[in-house]
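hey so i finally got around to running the thing on that chain from the lab meeting. sorry it took forever, my laptop kept dying and i had to restart like 3 times. anyway pasting the input first so we r on the same page abt which one it is
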Amino acid sequence: MPASYAYLGPEGTFTEVALRTLPEAATRELVPMVSVPAALDAVRTGEAEAAFVPIENSVEGGITTTLDELVAGEPLMIYREVLLSITFALLVRPGTKLSEIKTVTAHPAAQPQVRNWLKANLPDAVWESAASNADGARLVREGRYDAAFAGEFAAARYGLQALETGIHDAENAQTRFVLVGRPARPAAPTGADKTSVVLWQRDDHPGGLRDLLGEFAVRGVNLMLLQSRPTGAGIGNYCFCIDAEGHISDRRVSEALMGLKRICLQVRFLGSYPRADAKPDDVRVPLPGTSDDEFMSAADWVARCQDGRF
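ok and heres what got predicted. didnt touch it at all, straight out
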């Protein structure tokens, strides 16, 4: 049997479409799961080699279910990311008219991306969340709801009709997906990489977040995502999910992580992996001392001082 990739199912999700853009997906058994936690748990238990799940969209930011699953439980690591442009279709049973739609469904992350369209076209429709957009389509087929927001490609799979297409409140909306596996050595740096971590403060104090961000800033490391998530230890207790430009093997990134390890209660490394947009890492040239050569030169100078060779 081929190795398997679990993904947020059922068949016909945007997640499946994004997953199939990975060349290695053609050599894997693709297994739809009922939820993001189920897909990630399949990796933790060894039932799947990797899981492919949504982690961020350009309208609402981080997908909290995915972030929380990566924050807690047995550690996992991100190996790849994919960006997918997102537009929705309103899927209905054949013959349904817009005026007949009283209930609609989709994944919760879809609602902010169609909210204005829904208000303008179906102001009285009742929204109910589904486990995924494709699952919403399945529920429409079964008669549970009148319409679902999903990819137009899901219509044929579920015997539905695309009553409206090209639905989106924000132009150029994208969702970011990640391939997650068990911890191992990160792939070699490409020069266009991203590093993801989760940080826990030792205590809550004025300037605490500034202290964490300062470890990146003084080394010229640009941040691409910063999102707080509750730890479950009470109101006001948060950890911070961060995506930074660069690879852990870059001296500026590794030294930032070492600095964070010294001052944080806990640091969880979520991986260094190629950026989906392939943009080269943005080393802040105007800020001196941020290149690998300068870091290595400084380390060599300290070593020579220790040897009395300064």
